[in-house]
Amino acid sequence: MSILRSFHIEPIELPLRLSFATARDHLIRQVTRVVRVTLTTDDGLQGIGECVPVQYVTGETSDTAETTLKGLAAEALGGDCARPRQLLESLESRLAPTDGFPYGQPAARAALEMGLYDLICRRFGADWWSYFGGSVPQIETDVTLPMVDDTCARAVAFAEQGFRRFKVKIGRPDPDDDLRVLLDVARVAPDAVFRLDANQGYTPATALAFVRTALRMGLAIELLEQPVHREDLEGLAEVAAESPVPVFADEAVLTAADALRVVRLGRIAGINVKLMKSGVQGAQDIISVSRAAGLSLMMGCMLETPRGIGFALSLAAGTGAFSVYDLDSHMMLAEADPEPYFHQAGPHLTLSR
Fold first, then answer.
1. Rg (the chain; Cα; Å)
2. What is the pLDDT of residues 46-102, one digit of tens each?
3. Are 37 and 163 in contact, with CB atoms under 8 Å apart?
4. Which of 70, 167, 169, 277 is an active site residue?
5. Is 82 exposed, middle or buried (0-12, 13-18, 19+ CB in 10 A)?
6. Which of 56, 152, 181, 312 is 20 to 30 A from 64 via CA?
7. What is the pLDDT of residue 275?
């Protein structure tokens, strides 16, 4: 047994080196708000987890996650950390969907799960990547170009570092503005390949017209992510059926049941998995459904620190189930984390062991 003796919660506000905005946020973020959890067992081992909730995705904020985790602490103390699923099941009533949190509280759950898995790995002397299967030691990530004024300058800087795949946030009220951004980026980074993320900002007709226009203008479009509102599954299916590029679901999939609904739509090419919208076990369940159905998988992120990115990277690369990676939020932070959870050379992330 490994008895939980201390459950410490710490809210942290970290400044961003690069500001961030999307079609759904309606604000420009200058900081990321992290809730960090430190679990300590009776024999002195520590496991650390974190969450960065995004309200428009799960309904959670850093404040609600902190409150929830404080409530969990009182019930979790004395639990056996060597049996994480049993411990989590005992806390399920505090994390399950409610009127206030219709999607449950997956970000808060992710912080606790991450801490528990970290404890287990430390106990057995394993790294996260090996624990999750140790399949792929190195991956290539894209880099995000959000809705900000210095998009082209960022594209130039990242292209000089070797980045070729750019995840561009679209979904503005006027699609012509989105198109101008893509053309401007292509002008300064002529080898750019675009992954378009509308963050639910388009209608089906607008999404299809936009992609067709972009292709006609010679832009290299690799995929289109969550073009329509998360609840408009018929619209998502329509876009996927008629789109000349693969369509991925993001905000429409928080649970394995959501993934199954997307599978039944047909034509959806893949799902963007994020620990902050599904939790660790929830992400693993989505992976299982997607692999069984033959869907591609993208591992994405919110605004996690290198620790959170390292954990997501370890899960994705460890399972070997992912073909698309969008793990870049650590590059937006003003200060680097001194602990190397992975090594980076341009777009290539290599797991530390």
1. 20
2. 999 999 999 999 999 999 999 999 999 989 999 999 999 999 999 988 999 999 999
3. no
4. 169
5. middle
6. 312
7. 99
Tokens of 281: 């076990």
Are 341 and 118 a contacting pair, CB within 8 Å?
A: no
Q: For all residues of the chain together, what is the average pLDDT?
A: 95
Tell me the residue type at 194.
F
Q: Dihedral, CA atoms, 98, 103, 105, 111, nearest 10 degrees?
A: 160
169 is catalytic: yes
CB 34 within 8 A of CB 53: no
DSSP-derived secondary structure letter, 304: -
Pairing of strands 348-351, 138-140: antiparallel
Quick check: 309 and 327 in contact, CB under 8 A? Answer: yes
Q: Which candidate in 70, 167, 274, 277 is catalytic?
A: 274
Question: What amino acid occupies position 44?
Answer: G
Whole-number pLDDT of residue 185 = 98
Sorted by where each starts, the structural domains of the chain and their CATH numbers stand as 4-125 (3.30.390.10), 129-351 (3.20.20.120)
